[in-house]
C-alpha cells in the first residue's frame, strides 16, 4: 500500500526503544535521515495532555519539539 501510494519504497513509521531518544534522533538526523515536520499544535496539545496525566516525561519538551519527536503513552506510562 505504501509503495502504491508514494510510488517508491520508504519508511512509514519507526518506533525506538532507547535510553536517550534525544541523542539517538540527533545522530540519525546528522546521518541524513529525514523526519516529517510535526505541527506546533501537536506539542501544545501534548503539553496540555501531560498536565492531566500521571505520566512524567524526563526529556526536555522544547528539545523534543525541536527534533519533531512524537510521544506515545497511555495512563500506565
Explain how this protein is built:
This protein is mainly α and 77 residues long. It has one domain (17-77). Helices cover 43% and strands 0% of the residues. The chain contains four helices and no strands. The chain is globular and about 40 Å long. The termini are far apart. 0% of the residues are buried.
Which helices and strands appear, and what pairs or packs with what?
Layout: H1 2-6, H2 21-30, H3 40-51, H4 61-66
How many strand segments? 0
- Per the principal axes of the C-alpha atoms, what is the gross shape? globular
Largest sheet: none
Radius of gyration: 14 Å
Tally of DSSP helical segments: 4
Mean pLDDT: 89
Helix content: 40-55%
What is the straight-line distance between the termini?
32 Å
SS-based class: mainly alpha
Q: List SSEs in N-to-C order.
A: HHHH
Number of domains: 1
Low-confidence stretches: none
Instruction: Estimate the strand proportion.
Output: under 5%
Seen as an oligomer or otherwise, the chain set is single chain
Protein name: 4-hydroxyphenylpyruvate dioxygenase
InterPro entries: 4OHPhenylPyrv_dOase (IPR005956), Glyas_Bleomycin-R_OHBP_Dase (IPR029068), VOC_core (IPR037523)
Enzyme class: oxidoreductase
Pathway: Amino-acid degradation; L-phenylalanine degradation; acetoacetate and fumarate from L-phenylalanine: step 3/6
